C-alpha cells in the first residue's frame, strides 16, 4: 500500500494532462482534460493542528463550519453565546481571527448552530428565554456584515442549507421550561433565501398529527411529556437533506423517531418510529456497570436500547438515499435541581410535586427494590413515577437469569449486574389495551388493587452505535456492540501517537481522569456528532464519541456493509483527576465538518472537530491510501 495526499496527486495528474492540451479542434491535442477521479482504498486520520479557547468544560467549541473562499472556520462558542472565526490559511496553526456575536439581534441571544454555503453564513439564534421564538441570522462570510434576520420557532438548535442553496432549514427543538410549565411546539423552519436580504419563512409543524397521537404511540413514537400535545412533545434535533434538495429527514431525539419533510411544501409528510435494539441478542451486548471494576460486554435479555439519535446525515448509494445516525441517547430531565419535585425526605407516601419538573431517568436498582419507591423520597424519586405506583417488579420469566422471582428482583439489581444501569421508567411496564398500567401486588400477583408496576423489559438510553437507514426510515444496518468491543480490544490505542491502550480507560467520561467504566451505566461511549465526506467514489463516515472521545472512521459506500477504517483520539492525559488543570488534548467531540481537498487551504482533505469539554478545535489531515 502507498499513502498519498489525494488532491496533491490529482493536481499532478491534471498538470501532466494539461501539458498535452492544445486546440480543442485538433484531435491530436484535445485540450485540457479533467483529472481522473482517484478513489482511495482506505483512509486514516492524523492530527494536524489545534486552536484552544483556553476555556474548559463550558462548551467553548461546538458546531463547526468552513468557508473555502476565505479559508476560515466558524465554530460555535456556547460559553460566549457567539461564533469564533478561525483563520485556517495554515491549518497546522489555526488563529483566532474574529467573533460573530448576535447582540445586534437581541440582548441575551445565543448561537446554537452555524452553517456555510457559498458566501453566506447562517446562524441559529436562541432567544434569552429559550421557550420564546428564535431567529435565523444570515451574514456575509467575507465581511461578517449582517444581511438579514428572520423569526423562527422556539430554540432553533440546528441550521443547515439545502445543497442547491435555495433554502435554509432549522430544527426548532422547543424544549420545555425547567418546571415543564411552558412547553412550546417543536417545528422545522423552511426559509427561502432566494433573496438573502428578504428571506421568506415557512414552518413545517406537527399540529396536523395532534389528532393521531394514539396511532403514533402504537407505532412506537415516544410521546410522554406531561400534558403535551403531539406538536408540543416532538423535539426536532438535527437535519439531513437529500442531494436534490427536495426532502429532509429530522431526528426527533427524545421521541426516538424521524420526521420526513417535503421542503418545497414546508410540510411534515411522515413521522417514523425507530424502535429499539435487543441487547439480549448476540452482537448487541453492552457493559452495564460502572462499579464492577472490569469490562464485561455481554448480552442482557429483557434490556432494550432506544436509539434516540442526535446527528444525522444523508448520502447517495446505488441510486437511493441513505441516512446515518449517531445513536447518542438523551433523557428528559427537567427540574433536577428542584427539591420540591422529589418530595420531602421520609415522607410516606412521597409528596413530590409533579408540577415542578419531569425526570424519566432512574437506576434499575432503585426502580425494582422490594421495599418500593418511597425509600428514595427526598432524594431522586421522580414525582411522576410515584404518582403512577408505589413500586415496581421484574418479570420473573424474562429476568430469571439474574434471579428474579415473583415479588423479588433477586440479584438483578446488584451493582455488578443490572443495578447501576440507567433506564427510562416511562416504558417497559405491562399495560392494558388502553395503555394503562396493569397493577400487581408486592407478591408479584396481578391485582387491580395492587400498587406495583411489572416491567417486562427495561429500556436504556441510546444504541451505543451508529445506524444506517433507508429513506423511509427502515433500518438497513447497525453497528451493534462493535464500538464498545473495539474500545475494549487490543488494537485500540489512544493519544495522537496511538500509544495508550484504550482498554485501560474503557468507557471513560470526558471531564474526568482515571475514569475507567464511568459511563458504562449510562450510554457508554455516546456517539453524538457525525459528518460524511466523499473522496473519489467512496463515502466515509466520521463519527465523534462524546464521552470516550475520539473520531471513528468507516467506509459506508455500501450501506449494508460498512468497513472500519480508523480511530483517532487525541486526548493525551487520562490520569489527572481534573483534566482542566493540564493540557489534556481534545475532549468531548461535538461538531464535525469535512473539507474536500479541492476546497482545502492546503489542498488536502481535512476534518474540523469542535470539542466542547476541552474548548479546542482540532484540525485533522485525512490520509488516503491507494492500492499498489
From TrEMBL:
Residues 59-334, 439-621 form the Choice-of-anchor I domain. Residues 1-21 form the signal peptide. Keywords: Signal. PROSITE patterns: PROKAR_LIPOPROTEIN. InterPro entries: Choice_anch_I, Mesenchyme-surface_protein, Quino_amine_DH_bsu, WD40/YVTN_repeat-like_dom_sf. The keyword Signal applies. SUPFAM superfamilies: YVTN repeat-like/Quinoprotein amine dehydrogenase. It comes from the Bacteria. The keyword GTP-binding does not apply. NCBIfam families: choice_anch_I. This is Alkaline phosphatase-like protein. The lineage of its organism: Bacteria, Pseudomonadati, Pseudomonadota, Gammaproteobacteria, Oceanospirillales.
Amino acid at each position: 500500500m502507498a499513502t498519498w495526499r489525494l488532491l496533491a496527486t490529482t493536481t499532478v495528474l491534471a498538470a501532466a494532462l494539461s501539458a498535452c492540451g492544445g486546440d480543442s479542434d485538433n484531435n491530436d491535442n484535445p485540450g485540457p482534460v479533467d483529472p481522473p477521479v482517484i478513489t482511495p482504498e482506505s483512509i486514516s486520520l492524523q492530527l494536524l493542528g489545534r486552536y484552544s479557547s483556553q476555556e474548559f468544560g463550558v462548551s467553548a467549541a461546538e458546531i463547526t463550519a468552513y468557508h473555502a473562499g476565505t479559508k476560515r472556520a466558524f465554530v460555535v462558542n456556547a460559553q460566549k453565546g457567539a461564533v469564533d472565526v478561525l483563520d485556517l490559511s495554515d491549518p497546522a496553526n489555526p488563529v483566532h481571527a474574529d467573533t460573530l456575536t448576535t447582540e445586534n439581534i437581541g440582548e441575551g441571544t445565543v448561537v446554537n448552530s452555524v452553517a456555510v454555503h457559498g458566501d453566506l453564513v447562517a446562524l441559529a439564534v436562541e432567544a434569552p428565554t429559550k421557550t420564546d421564538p428564535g431567529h435565523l441570522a444570515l451574514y456575509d462570510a467575507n465581511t461578517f456584515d449582517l444581511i438579514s434576520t428572520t423569526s423562527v420557532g422556539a430554540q432553533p438548535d440546528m441550521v443547515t442549507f439545502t445543497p442547491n442553496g435555495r433554502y435554509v432549514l432549522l430544527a426548532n427543538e422547543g424544549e420545555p421550561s425547567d418546571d415543564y410549565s411552558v412547553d412550546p411546539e417543536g417545528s422545522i423552519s423552511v426559509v427561502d433565501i432566494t433573496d438573502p436580504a428578504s428571506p421568506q419563512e415557512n414552518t413545517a409543524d406537527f399540529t396536523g398529527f395532534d389528532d393521531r397521537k394514539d396511532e403514533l404511540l402504537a407505532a412506537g413514537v415516544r410521546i410522554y411529556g406531561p400534558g403535551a400535545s403531539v406538536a408540543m412533545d416532538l423535539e426536532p434535533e438535527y437535519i439531513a437533506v437529500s442531494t436534490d434538495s427536495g426532502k429532509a429527514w429530522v431526528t426527533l431525539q427524545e421521541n426516538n423517531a424521524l420526521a420526513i419533510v417535503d421542503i418545497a411544501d414546508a410540510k411534515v409528510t411522515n413521522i417514523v418510529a425507530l424502535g429499539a435494539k435487543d441487547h439480549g441478542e448476540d452482537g448487541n451486548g453492552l457493559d452495564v456497570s460502572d462499579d464492577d471494576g472490569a469490562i464485561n460486554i455481554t448480552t442482557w435479555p429483557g434490556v432494550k436500547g432506544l436509539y434516540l439519535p442526535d446527528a444525522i446525515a444523508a448520502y447517495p448509494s446505488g441510486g437511493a438515499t441513505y441516512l446515518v445516525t449517531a445513536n447518542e441517547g438523551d433523557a428528559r430531565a427537567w427540574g433536577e435541581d428542584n427539591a420540591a419535585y422529589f418530595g420531602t425526605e421520609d415522607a410516606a407516601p412521597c409528596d413530590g410535586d409533579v408540577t415542578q419538573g419531569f425526570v424519566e431517568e432512574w437506576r434499575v436498582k432503585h426502580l425494582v427494590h422490594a421495599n418500593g419507591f418511597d425509600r428514595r423520597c427526598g432524594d431522586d424519586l421522580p414525582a411522576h413515577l410515584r404518582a403512577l405506583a408505589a413500586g415496581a417488579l421484574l418479570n420473573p420469566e424474562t429476568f430469571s437469569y439474574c434471579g428474579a422471582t415473583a415479588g423479588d428482583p433477586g440479584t438483578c439489581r446488584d451493582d455488578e449486574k443490572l443495578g447501576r444501569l440507567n433506564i427510562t421508567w416511562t416504558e417497559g411496564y405491562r399495560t392494558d389495551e388502553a395503555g394503562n398500567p396493569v397493577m400487581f401486588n408486592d407478591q408479584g400477583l396481578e391485582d387491580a388493587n395492587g400498587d406495583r408496576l411489572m416491567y417486562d423489559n427495561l429500556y436504556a438510553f441510546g444504541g451505543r452505535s451508529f445506524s444506517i437507514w433507508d429513506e423511509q426510515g427502515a433500518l438497513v444496518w447497525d453497528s451493534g456492540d462493535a464500538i464498545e468491543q473495539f474500545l475494549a480490544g487490543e488494537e485500540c490505542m489512544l493519544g495522537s501517537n496511538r500509544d495508550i491502550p484504550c482498554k485501560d480507560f474503557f468507557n471513560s467520561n470526558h471531564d474526568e481522569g482515571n475514569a475507567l467504566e464511568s459511563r458504562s451505566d449510562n450510554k457508554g461511549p455516546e456517539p453524538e456528532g457525525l459528518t460524511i465526506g466523499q473522496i473519489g467514489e467512496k463515502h466515509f463516515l466520521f463519527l465523534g464519541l462524546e464521552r470516550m472521545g475520539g473520531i471513528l472512521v468507516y467506509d459506508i459506500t455500501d450501506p449494508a456493509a460498512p468497513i472500519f477504517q480508523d480511530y483517532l483520539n487525541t486526548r493525551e492525559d487520562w490520569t489527572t483527576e481534573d483534566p482542566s488543570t493540564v493540557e489534556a488534548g481534545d475532549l468531548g467531540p461535538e461538531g464535525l465538518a469535512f473539507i474536500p481537498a479541492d476546497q482545502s487551504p492546503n489542498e488536502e482533505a481535512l476534518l474540523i472537530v469542535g470539542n466542547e469539554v476541552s474548548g479546542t478545535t482540532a484540525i485533522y489531515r485525512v490520509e488516503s491510501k491507494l492500492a499498489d
